[in-house]
Amino acid sequence: MYIVQIASECAPVIKAGGLGDVVYGLSRELEGRGNTVELILPMYDCMRYDHIWGLHDAYLNLWVPWYGAAIHCSVYCGWVHGRVCFFIQPHCEDNFFNRGCYYGCNDDNMRFAFFSKAALEFLLQSNKRPDIIHCHDWQTGLIPVMLYEIYKYHGMEYQRVCYTIHNFKHQGMGGVETLEATNLNRPEYYFQYDKLRDNFNPFAINFMKAGINYANAVTTVSPNHAIEAQTSDIGCGLGHTLHLQQNKFSGVLNGIDYDFWNPQVDRYIPNNYNWDDFEIKTYNKKALRERLMLADDDQKPIIAYIGRLDNQKGVHLVHHAMYYALGKGAQFVLLGSATEPAINAHFQHEKQFLNNNPDVHLELGFNEELSHLIYAGADMIVVPSNYEPCGLTQMIGLKYGTVPIVRAVGGLVNTVFDRDYDQNLPPEKRNGYVFYEQDNQALESAMGRAIDLWYQQPKEFKQLAIQGMRYDNSWNVPGAKYLEIYQWIKHHW
Ligand SMILES: Nc1ncnc2c1ncn2[C@@H]1O[C@H](COP(=O)(O)OP(=O)(O)O[C@H]2O[C@H](CO)[C@@H](O)[C@H](O)[C@H]2O)[C@@H](O)[C@H]1O
């Protein structure tokens, strides 16, 4: 099959979070199974150009219709760790992707509406006719709309769309101007509830709702989250839309790329290891302590948090986890970045306050290399999310023998099984600790059990970590599931 992925991120060249990992990892798996896969991405000024090989011009005169005129774009092509990627660079005063950031601009909706339009225009003009267009999150929600309302009539009638939602919280809103800019026009048509009109704001069109209504198949990133999104407020107002479209909606658990996230071959960690030489992990722990200038004390476990610092991630519990760990005599390492000024200020303040404490380190910012050392060096990783569509950090933790302590939401439920209380799996299949409520006591109940096991029954703790390492969370199974979905939409629509 010929598959084109269209997204706003692809790790490691463009990565703000888990979306980037998934776009890269899934593409690699699909290619490994004999499919042709290409990616279309924005050409941001701030992406990691050092991860692109052989960047060359691929299509220099792409004219993208926009507001009744057209914007001149160049398309460049290069390899990102083996994946063929096309980068779209518009030449216009808006400088859509030369903003020094991936997201967070006031006109994000216009930036990505333009990107979606440009991606389709590139396919059309360069005569690319993939079997499947797989697009991701709100940034590309308008793609199936434009495909079926415009491009279908210009020679793209056989393309089918799979749309994957990684986070319902960010849906992308626009007004009449978005319809004008993209040449969709006809507000009286699109502003209907079964089309693009937002379920709550009658004056807005909703990009994600558009994607759900127009794509041939819609997925989210874990089976449990697919249920949550339809039946609770976690669908952020799209529950009803999903319910109406339930025949084409499902949850496919993400995988992680074991070429990149694998302690046996990871080139960012000083000592490679696996479950049969698990003791080597302690050298990474030592290296982590040295790197972050933590006290070199073998008698303490290291507990880590890695992730964006925002309300989704349960920041109040992240904060509590830090002090609870210290109170229990453990060390704590946090790697995270906050986009919200108040949350950023809070953790900056904590960092200063704890500056002289030899048992804690807060690294505020994005640091891919350091994240690998933390996964390899820590004993436990805490993921106390308010909601979590899938969650990759617990899966990476498992692979690195770093025991996850998670709240029972979203994909965390599908991947972490409580050592003491899981009812469905025998003890030798369990791999971490799970808590349910959103308060400090709930977090403590799980963290306390984990830390106590580390201190009191180290052999048992090691056994638990190794059981986690044996889990297969690779892209193997999810890759096959996506191919089934692609086949289904290719033959049934
Ligand atoms: N400061 C930092 N420095 C270095 N690396 C950092 C970092 N902060 C995060 N990372 C890395 O970014 C990734 C984050 O994965 P998450 O599952 O937390 O994704 P996120 O919530 O962004 O995305 C959404 O999409 C993904 C993918 O579908 C879903 O798993 C998730 O539930 C959903 O919220 C991991 O690879 C992690 O190591």
From TrEMBL:
It comes from the Bacteria. Its EC number is 2.4.1.21. It catalyses: [(1->4)-alpha-D-glucosyl](n) + ADP-alpha-D-glucose = [(1->4)-alpha-D-glucosyl](n+1) + ADP + H(+). Residues 3-242 form the Starch synthase catalytic domain. The keyword Glycosyltransferase applies. GO terms for molecular function: alpha-1,4-glucan glucosyltransferase (ADP-glucose donor) activity. Keywords: Glycogen biosynthesis, Glycosyltransferase, Transferase. This is Glycogen synthase. The gene is glgA.
